[in-house]
Amino acid sequence: MSIKGRLALTLVVVLSALFFLAPVIKPDLPQWWGKYKMILGLDLQGGMHLVLGVDQDKAVNAVMERLSQEVRDSLGEKHIRSKRTSITELSKLNLSLMSEKHEKEAQEILQSDFSQFELTNLGSGNFLLNLKQEEIDEIKRYAVDQGIETLRNRIDELGVSEPTIQKQGDDRILVQLPGVKDPDRAIDILVTTAQLEFKIVADGKGPGTEIVYQKITEKGTNKIIQQNEFILKKRTLMTGDRLTNARVRIDSQFNTPYVAIEFDSKGARQFERITGENKGKRLAIVLDNNVYSAPVIKSKISGGSAIIEGSFTMDEAHDLAIILRAGALPAPLEILENRTVGPTLGKDSIEKGFLSMLIGGIIVIIFMAAYYKFSGVVADIVLILNVVLIMAALAALSATLTLPGIAGVVLTIGMAVDANVIIFERVREELRLGKTPMAALDSGFNKALLPIMDANVTTLIAALVLFEFGTGPVKGFAVTLSIGIIASLFTALFVSRLIFDISFSGKKISKLSI
User: Fold this and answer.
1) Residue 126's closest CA among 148, 106, 111?
2) What is d(CA 214, CA 288) in angstroms, rounded to the nearest whole number?
3) Which residue range is the domain that position 259 belongs to?
4) Full DSSP string of 464-505
5) Residue 423 belongs to domain with CATH number
6) SS3 for 343-394, per residue?
7) Which of 298, 322, 340 is the last residue of a domain?
8) What's the domain count of the chain?
């Protein structure tokens, strides 16, 4: 490529870098331009660090409750009435039939439809269903994996940039949220289980009923100021797993917010059937064992929609909608560790990190200029350009800059200098062999190409592996290291040679300052 072609390409790269760096230098740019910016990680801008424990036993128990209901329903469809079903220990279900004459038929149904159980016929119409160990293990794994996905959906709704959500051990989830301004609200949204259930309000206490309360809290303090008692039928007619949407709406009559929910097609048919079969009764809407409302069913409700009313503030209604849209957690979460990193610490980390980079850079610049003279100045120019390109790439990709990421930048400064040192030493060898300055430059760059490529490509592969398998801080290091390697290859092999060619173009060089 000609000098003009290489100069044009370099100018395009430099101008592009300045374009992406402009919002970092001048924040009050148009919105479309301002979206290109470096995002500071938790260790730099502050935020939340949570370790959440997943109650896997509760997940197993919830599945057992559902399977217990499915066993009763499956037998009921064949007109086989069960006298009692009870869950004992963690994974054992005892079943007693009303009549022993259906024992054989019931056993065939259980073996056919419920293969996840090990079935034992105890005689006299009694069965023991023991959940298989592989099923238990799968439920526990799912509780953590699905918990991660649900948390990710909720955090996306919160608008947190570059969160870290990952499995830690067998039953823990690590969550890091950079820049969170309201930690209490974030915690409430994350740890709320969001088990939405629809149950019929019973006429009075009796078998198959339970007492659930409606908790009314004081706005602003969340202090419970009133509890209304509801007697509900234990059987859950419908759950929130059929929800497709949840939005905040305003009641035009009372100007109060409520949450409008929508079901998928199957959920819509199910809700229509429930409301049609229970006209005149009250349908309680229960979220995490708290009754939000219990309206009277006046007629069959079709169309697949319902509303959740309560003494909401706008923020509370909005948070409830976020939780419902993201879906329920398969198991309760317990906060095992909660640390808040303040912005002061982040500011201090940034200042110290950039100070170390600045001091290291100045020392390298002075050494290169003193030792390699004019060639050292060329190396210093491409070194500064190298840092500019790294920062521009981070802004263009909206990548997260962490403290280890700053360490990656410092490391690439050393690697960029190393590439120039290899080139310059090759050129010196060629000069000692008696070649002319331009011939020595050509030969030095050509001979240094393969060693530089080998060293940088192997380091790049290592950085990509770190990015793929590393955690948040390690990924931050890998990102800046990868970008720095690519930038240093471009500046050391392409831009530095261009500067030499422009400097010596049309001149007869008898001596090379190197």
Assistant:
1) 106
2) 11
3) 192-340
4) HHHHHH--HHHHHHHHHHHHHHHHHHIIIIIIHHHHHHHHHT
5) 1.20.1640.10
6) HHHHHHHHHHHHHHHHHHHHHHHHHHHHHHCHHHHHHHHHHHHHHHHHHHHH
7) 340
8) 3
Give me the pLDDT at residue 15, please.
92
Q: Whole-angstrom Cα distance, residue 329 to residue 331?
A: 5
Q: Cα–Cα distance between 93 and 60 in angstroms, integer?
A: 12
Residue 92 is predicted with a pLDDT of 92
377 in the same domain as 280? no
Q: In terms of domains, do 335 and 404 share one? A: no
**pTM of the full predicted structure?**
0.61
The C-alpha angle 482, 485, 491, rounded to 5 degrees, equals 140
Dihedral class, residue 304 (left if φ above 0, else alpha if ψ from -120 to 50, else beta):
left
Residues 154, 253: Cα–Cα separation, whole Å: 31
Instruction: Say if residue 361 is in the same domain as residue 334.
Output: no
User: Is residue 476 located within the same domain as residue 357?
Assistant: yes
Q: Is residue 371 part of a domain?
A: yes
Q: How far is CA 244 from CA 263, 267, 307, 322, in A?
A: 5, 9, 13, 12
Query: Which pLDDT belongs to residue 329?
Result: 84
Q: Could you tell me the maximum CA-CA distance found in the chain, to the nearest angstrom?
A: 111
Ordered mean pLDDT values, 10 residues apiece, the chain (514 residues): 87 90 74 68 76 92 87 87 86 90 90 91 91 92 90 80 81 86 83 87 88 77 76 89 88 85 89 91 89 88 84 82 83 87 64 78 87 89 89 82 79 82 89 87 88 88 85 77 89 89 80 82
Give residue 69's pLDDT.
83
Q: Is beta strand 47-54 parallel, antiparallel or unpaired with respect to 172-178? A: antiparallel
374 and 405 part of one domain: yes
Pairing status of strand 39-40 against strand 400-401: parallel
